[in-house]
Specification:
It contains 16 helices and 21 strands. With about 475 residues, the chain is an alpha/beta fold. Among the domains are: about 150 residues, Rossmann fold (3-Layer(aba) Sandwich); about 100 residues, RuvBL1 DNA/RNA binding domain (OB fold (Dihydrolipoamide Acetyltransferase, E2P)), CATH 2.40.50.360; about 70 residues, Helicase, Ruva Protein, domain 3 (Orthogonal Bundle). Helix 1 packs parallel to helix 2, helix 12 crosses helix 13 and helix 14 packs across helix 15. The longest helix has 16 residues. GO terms for molecular function: ATP binding; DNA helicase activity; hydrolase activity. Keywords: Activator, ATP-binding, Chromatin regulator, DNA damage, DNA repair, Helicase, Hydrolase, Nucleotide-binding, Nucleus, Transcription, Transcription regulation. Its EC number is 3.6.4.12.
Length: about 475
C-alpha cells in the first residue's frame, strides 16, 4: 500500500539585512505592464531594451502558465547586465511562482551526484498550489472566563463569541487558554479559530470598542463585527515546491532537512510516488502545477553530462523554464575536446531561445553609476561622476562601480565634506588597479612572479645582480 503524501505550507517572514549588493538596486524589469515595452531607465535597469522586452515576454508566459520546459540563453560580453535581467525577472515573478538561482560551479561542489543536484534544482523551480477547505470560527469576543484550579491542575474556561446574527459559548481546554494568552486576546477582539489545528489569529479590534482608542494605542486595527454564521468553511491555498514535498516524504531526511539545507540524495521511487499523487490532485482539481524559473549562471562551466541531463529533463512533463547566462564565445565544452558557441553543445543550442545583451553606451553607464551611488547613499559631484563614467567605458563598469565606495572612504578622511570629488576618484583609481593595469603589472614583473613552471627570479634590493632560481 502506498504511503500517504504529506505537504507543508511555509509562512516565510523575510527580514532583510539592508545590505547593499551588486544587484540590490534592481526592483523589476522596468517594462510597461500592459504593452511590455521597456522604459529606458526604470526599476534599477538601464538600457538593454530588446533583451528586457524578450525577458518580459517570457516572464508573462511563465506567470500565466503558458510556457514550461523551455530553455533560454542570455548571451553577451561581461558587464552587460545578464544577471541583472535575471534578477529583474525574479523580482517581477511574484510570491507564488518559484525562482531558483544556481551557479554552475555549485553542481561540482555539492556532496551529491551532478544529476541529483540538477534534479533538486529543477524540482525547487516547480510549485504545487494545493487548495483545501477548512472550518473556521470567526467572530467578536464577548467574554473570556478562566477557572484556575487551586491545586494547579488543568485550566478550564469558557469563551463567549458572537457575530451580528448569533452568539455562542465554547468550552476551552488548557491548550486553547494558552493560545488565547499568547495572542493576548481580550473582550472586543475579532478573532479567527481554525478548528482543525486550533490556531488562533487576531484580526483586529471591533469598532464597538473604538471608545477605548486612547487605551489601545495608535497602531490598533479596527474592523467590523463579522456577519452570518460563526462557523464557516473556507478555501485555504498552500503553495509548496516539489522539492519540499520530496524532502518531507523522504524517510532518510525528513522535515527538519528543510531547515538544515542538508537534504542529501532522494530516492527516485519517492519522486515517482509524489508525481503520481500530484497528478491525482490535479485531476481532482485539488492542486495546480505552477512551472517556475531556474536560472543557471555561467552555464559554460557545466560539462557534457550535465547538458545531456538538462536536455532530457526539459522534455519531462514537470519541467520549469530554464534561463542560462554565458559570456563566452567559441569555447571548449567541459568534458569534451571540441569547441562550440557559448560553450553549449550544438544539439542543446538548437533548442535554446537566445537573448543577446550589448555593451552600454556612455550615457547608460553614467545612469547606472548614478543609480549605484544612490543605492550606496553616496553623494557624487558631477565632475567625479563624469570621470567614473569615462573609467567605466575604458576599464569596465564593475571597476567603476567599485570605485564609488572606495572614493567615498577617501572622502571620509576629509572632515566637513559630504560629496565625493574628482580628486577622490583619481586617488582611488591610483590605489586600485583595473584589469588593464593589472595585465601591465604582470608583464613588467613577470620575472619576479612565479610562473607556470615554478621558475622565479629574485633580485637584491641593494643593486647587486639578480639571483635566478629555476
Amino acid at each position: 500500500m502506498a504511503a500517504q503524501i504529506t505537504t507543508v505550507g511555509e509562512s516565510r517572514e523575510l527580514r532583510g539585512l539592508n545590505l547593499v549588493a551588486a544587484h540590490s538596486h534592481i526592483r523589476g524589469l522596468g517594462v510597461d505592464p500592459d504593452t511590455l515595452e521597456p522604459k529606458n531607465a526604470s526599476q534599477g535597469l538601464v538600457g538593454q531594451q530588446k533583451a528586457r522586452k524578450a525577458a518580459a515576454v517570457i516572464l508573462r508566459m511563465a506567470q500565466e502558465g503558458k510556457i514550461a520546459g523551455r530553455a533560454v540563453l542570455i548571451a553577451g560580453p561581461p558587464s552587460t547586465g545578464k544577471t541583472a535581467i535575471a534578477m529583474g525577472m525574479s523580482q517581477s515573478l511574484g510570491a507564488d511562482v518559484p525562482f531558483t538561482m544556481l551557479a554552475s560551479s555549485e553542481i561540482f561542489s555539492l556532496e551529491m551526484s551532478k544529476t541529483e543536484a540538477l534534479t533538486q534544482a529543477f524540482r525547487k523551480s516547480i510549485a504545487v498550489r494545493i487548495t483545501e477547505e477548512s472550518e473556521i470560527i470567526e467572530g467578536e469576543v464577548v467574554e473570556i472566563q478562566i477557572d484556575r484550579s487551586v491545586t494547579g491542575g488543568n485550566k478550564q474556561g469558557k469563551l463567549t463569541i458572537k457575530t451580528t446574527d448569533m452568539e455562542t459559548v465554547y468550552d476551552m481546554g488548557t491548550k486553547m487558554i494558552e493560545s488565547m494568552t499568547k495572542e493576548k486576546v481580550m473582550a472586543g477582539d475579532v478573532i479567527s479559530i481554525d478548528k482543525a489545528s486550533g490556531k488562533i489569529t487576531k484580526i483586529g479590534r471591533s469598532y464597538t470598542r473604538s471608545r477605548d482608542y486612547d487605551a489601545m494605542g495608535a497602531d490598533t486595527k479596527f474592523v467590523q463585527c463579522p456577519e452570518g454564521e460563526l462557523q464557516q468553511r473556507r478555501e485555504v491555498v498552500h503553495t509548496v515546491s516539489l522539492h519540499e514535498i520530496d524532502v518531507i516524504n523522504s524517510r532518510t531526511q525528513g522535515f527538519l532537512a528543510l531547515f538544515s539545507g542538508d537534504t542529501g540524495e532522494i530516492r527516485s521511487e519517492v519522486r515517482d510516488q509524489i508525481n503520481e499523487k500530484v497528478a491525482e490532485w490535479k485531476e481532482e482539481s485539488k492542486a495546480t502545477i505552477v512551472p517556475g524559473v531556474l536560472f543557471i549562471d555561467e552555464v559554460h562551466m557545466l560539462d557534457i553530462e550535465c547538458f545531456s541531463f538538462i536536455n532530457r529533463a526539459l522534455e519531462d512533463e514537470l519541467a520549469p523554464i530554464v534561463i542560462m547566462a554565458s559570456n563566452r564565445g567559441n569555447t571548449q565544452i567541459r568534458g569534451t575536446t571540441y569547441r562550440s558557441p557559448h560553450g553549449l553543445p550544438l544539439d542543446f543550442l538548437d533548442r535554446v531561445v537566445i537573448i543577446t545583451t550589448h555593451p552600454y553606451s556612455k550615457d547608460e553607464i553614467q545612469q547606472i553609476l548614478s543609480i549605484r551611488a544612490q543605492e550606496e547613499d553616496i553623494d557624487v559631484s558631477p565632475d567625479a561622476l563624469a570621470l567614473l563614467t569615462t573609467i567605466g567605458q575604458n576599464a569596465g563598469l564593475r571597476y567603476a562601480s567599485n570605485l564609488i565606495v572606495t572614493s567615498d572612504l577617501i572622502r571620509q578622511k576629509q572632515p566637513g565634506r559630504k560629496e565625493v570629488r574628482l580628486s577622490d576618484v583619481e586617488k582611488s583609481s591610483q590605489l586600485f588597479f583595473d584589469p588593464a593595469k593589472s595585465v601591465k603589472f604582470v608583464q613588467d614583473q613577470e620575472k619576479r612572479l612565479i610562473g607556470a613552471q615554478g621558475a622565479v627570479s629574485f633580485s637584491a634590493t641593494n643593486g647587486t645582480e639578480a639571483m635566478d632560481v629555476s
